[in-house]
Design goal:
With 368 residues, the protein is α/β, with parallel strands linked by helices. 42% of the residues lie in helices and 16% in strands. It is built from 15 helices and ten strands. Strand 5, helix 8 and strand 6 form a beta-alpha-beta unit. It is globular and about 65 Å long.
Amino acid sequence: MKHPIAAGLLAIGLAAATTTGFAQDAKVPAGYPADYASVIDGSRSESGLVIYSNMADTNWQPVLQGFRAAYPWIKVETLDLGSGTVHSRWEAEAGSGSRTADILISGANDRWAAYAGGGQMMDYQSPELAALPGFAHPAPGIYTLSADPLVITYNAALLTDDQRPTGFASLVAKATADHDSFDGKITTYDAARNSFGLAAWWSFLNAKGADGWAELAKIGPMIRGEVSGGAMNEKIATGEYVVGVAVSGITIFPRLDQPGGELLGFAFPDDGTIMMLRGMGIPKGTANPNSAKLFIDYALSHDGQTLIGKGGLTPLRDDVDEAEVRYTYQGIEKTVGKDKMIIAGFDQGLIAEAAPFVEKWKAAMAGQ
């Protein structure tokens, strides 16, 4: 007898499959090559999928329901890890013979930069490629699942309208003018301890140059670094912090609809909104290559990207209706302006310049 909750979720998923165009009997999706049937058939004898990511269950739920409805024989297990841990764990396990990830997804863009051309990822050419923007496939074997905004978050109960920053420069001005309200109560990803934070701040400060570094040094001693967006938002909600800067939107958007969400507010920074490209790839030698290909294709499809959006991530495709999700990349671009979008991609500078950048970051945190 099926568990009633499981049966209900399956029913939801089957309904999603009917509406998304991925037929319940798993026929080749419209527009795909006929020999794609061999990928579907090959997945039936595989042992499911393990995905290492930096995404929470709330982010995963909609797309996993849709994927399981489309391919109900594929069991999917997701592990929510820190961006750097996604890669360090897989790298430690690869070649050991132990069960490891079939797909990696993270915002550790320095690791993706290192993999570009390195041969660690399977050079899979998705049938969805033609419908994706150029930055969705930046290197062989590497895809972009989403392009997520980093926002300013704040405690709406503790900060008045006049105290709420609208951008990084605005935060610096307000914090330096009202030291007591902000000292020790500003948070962000620590670029010295966190791959996600390194990619975000490296991209932002490269765009802002010397002026950006000077502004950071003004409030550096007021900042307490964290390594998790979820932790930042919870501490903002409790009042331990009053504001977070460059906080991942995927950690705040679902939180707004949960109990206590009314205590939180956010803003797209008006002087530069970081758009974090979230990398995705299939490691070479995976035990379940066909299942992994099916997932990659589903996640990049119109239907998969819509469900990705329902989970709080930001879809890449321009054919996703923003009315069906919270935000799309194109919608954010219209809101903040193309010239205010700072793309945090998979730049080789994240590797070559990491050590001196981190030292400069530490100095700025000390007000130097």
